[in-house]
Amino acid sequence: MDVRVGVLGPVTAWVDGAEAALGGPRQRAVLARLVAAGGRTVTADRLVQDLWAEPPQGALAAVRTFVAALRRGLEPGRTARTPARLLVTDGPGYALRDVDVDAWSFEAAVAEARDLAPAAARASLDRALGAWRGAPYAGLDLPWAVAERARLAELRLVATERRAEVRIALGDAADVVPGLDAHVAEHPWREEAWRLLALALYRSGRQADALAVLRRARAMLADELGVDPGPRLAELEGRVLRHEVGADAATPDDVWRDTTSAYERVVAAGARSRLESTATLLRTLALSGGEGLAAARSQRVAAVRAAEQLSDPELTARVIGAFDVPGAWTRSDDAGAAAEMVAAAERTLAALPEDAPDAVRARLLATVAIESRGLPGTRGPEAARQAETLARLAGDPAVLAFALAGRYLTAFGRTGLAPERDELGAELVALAARHGLSTFEILGHLVRMQALSALGRWETAQQHADAAAALGRRHERPLVAVFTGWFAALRAASGSSASDADAAEDAYRTAAGLLDGSGMPGLAEGLFPLAVLAVRVWHGLPADGGSAGRDSNVDSAGWGPHEPWARPHLLLARGADAEAAAAVRRIPDPPPGLLTEVLWVLAGRAAIAVGDRRVAERARAALTPAADEVSAGSGVLTAGPVRDHLDVLTNFLAR
After folding, report:
1. What rounded mean pLDDT belongs to the chain?
2. Strand (E) or helix (H) holding 191
3. pLDDT of the residue at 562
């Protein structure tokens, strides 16, 4: 369920895109007061004081009634006696949790823009300012609402001026002049507005107009307030007079060249800091995808080996922990490198001094969890839980986000865990958005896209796919488009029937093209034929009816790691029943991961076809916890509703 609360205008809420029933003004005031608290707890007594100048008799009971009504509006599907998830009771009061609030997102976006390059800052500020629907907390004239309205209005002015500044830096000076002119007229006491208007005029080739604006500002400040212009305004006036306001900034390539040249000159060869710098650079390289991702994996191993040779576990811990690149897929791209990273992290954990910071240990444990993904055993999940505990103690949002990424990749101990992963995704999105951690915000949206696909909530999953795609474009994360492109194919396949299985195959073929050069063999290997096979088995069609089946030899490597589950179906389609029965007997338990449900469906259906009750029983037992899910938790392919397959398995075993 996707819940949004809006206070940048009249107090409103939306549940899965539809406006929620919030009740009358007092109830809306309660919700608004909790928003103003920024997620912190507001006691019931405080709510009474903030809702009434002179509280009436029974005010406390009225607040409880308002809260109960709001809960029904925000969580309409919540069953009786089930604890509220969004408007929670916390000690003597109430708080909002896991809710997308426009004012909170606005503040986070404005704060994030301070540290972004101009193009990214403009996108962030456009999104932030576009969320406004009117005066904040419109219609509420209570003292705390008036104060919040004034604070947010001031922040909006700051955001407006910052956006104008980055647009000037991006070469849009002439286009921002009209807006700044109106801004200055409406807010004549803001020196920054005058400065930006003069700068925009100068960058537009209008030096005389720029000087006239600066002199008007000087005269207005002197005549009305009796003060001289501040240092930034005075400095700009001098620079305009001297023609020193340059319009040309260094290009990213210039900055890169000059910085790396200085680094080579200043940082001594062999310095340990070079290893840490390398690890940080490898993180950026990995996020670029394709060849960069492959190179980063290889060089990361080399960097950690070099660090271990120096016998400094704290340095090694920093080198390992700097590569906090999360994964959205549960099969490693390089099992050998992953195993080496796990071993190095475990050695480093054992060698760290007892007083090593919790955050350092948490990063190493999260590395163990992430690099253990897709492997059976308890160490990965155990390391993830330990990492999360230490990260929460450390109070570092980036470390906690990394630990939650480890929790997600190891949350596959059995089928049917999509709701748990959706909760992890929701926490990741909220945490990362609040602290400007774009990589983990993207991961959170992808995790929710996958989990909501398993829960059959396609529209909400689409919203998270769209959010991930937008963040990927904004932050130059090309691999995001691979996952969202496959999600589009999944949606086409999820609505298919036996008559249009070929159309689903075409959608998957288009998505498969996105994997070329992605640098993600753990995802790409065998994915397209598996996707087609899953659709055909779901609809009771022969495995070799689609091109993926026709073009794939039983003994070929085209199926990659999925070959044991595909082989029986291909043999059956070719009439090799005895060989198919032998292949069914050899089917192993699927590895823990995003494809577990689909692989069990294939195993169960093959077992029915050859009359193997033992494998059919294994499949039914494994799939039962996911009875209410769709076998689409990968977010990329599906074999249809799990219950459909369980019914067939149950009927077979009952004979």
Report:
1. 91
2. helix 191-203
3. 96
Distance CA 15, CA 86 (A): 12
The alpha carbon of 299 is separated from its chain's Cα centroid by a whole number of angstroms, namely 26
| Geometric angle at alpha carbon 437, from 436 and 438, rounded to 5° | 95
3-state secondary structure of 19: strand
Q: Kindly state the DSSP code that residue 590 receives in the 8-state scheme.
A: P
Cα dist from 282 to 188, 218, 318, 525, whole Å: 48, 50, 13, 24
- Domains of the chain, residue spans: 3-119, 171-248, 277-472, 484-654
Statement: 277-472 belongs to CATH 1.25.40.10 = yes
> Long-range contacts made by residues 182-190, C-beta under 8 angstroms, separation at least 24?
184/213, 187/157, 188/220, 189/225, 190/157, 190/161
Closest CA to 168 of 241, 236, 253: 236
Listed in order, strand segments (DSSP E) in 474-632 are none
User: Percent of the chain having pLDDT more than 70?
Assistant: 96
pTM, two decimal places: 0.65
How far apart, in whole angstroms, are the C-alpha atoms of residue 205 and residue 217? 20
pLDDT at 249 over 80: no
- State CA 46 to chain mean position distance: 35
Cα pseudo-dihedral 630, 634, 635, 640, rounded to 10? -30
Residue 595's nearest CA partner among 649, 635, 563 is: 635
Give the confidence band of 551 by pLDDT, cuts at 50, 70, 90.
very low
3-class secondary structure, 247 = coil
Q: Which fold has domain 3-119?
A: Arc Repressor Mutant, subunit A (1.10.10)
Q: 56: which DSSP letter?
A: P
Tell me: pLDDT of 581 over 80: yes
Q: What residues contact residue 508 under an 8 Å CB cut-off, 6+ apart?
A: 489, 493, 528, 531, 532, 535, 637
What DSSP element (H or E) covers 218? helix 207-220
**Phi then psi dihedrals of residue 94, to 5 deg:** -135, 155
- Is residue 310 classed as helix, strand or coil in its secondary structure? coil
Please determine, for residue 42, whether its predicted confidence score (pLDDT) is greater than 60.
yes
Length of the chain: 655
pLDDT band at 548 (very low <50, low <70, confident <90, very high): very low
Burial (Cβ within 10 Å: 0-12, 13-18, ≥19) of residue 26: middle
Q: What is the pLDDT of residues 256-282, one digit of tens each?
A: 766 787 788 778 888 888 998 998 999
CATH code 1.25.40.10 for 171-248: yes
pLDDT at 185: 92
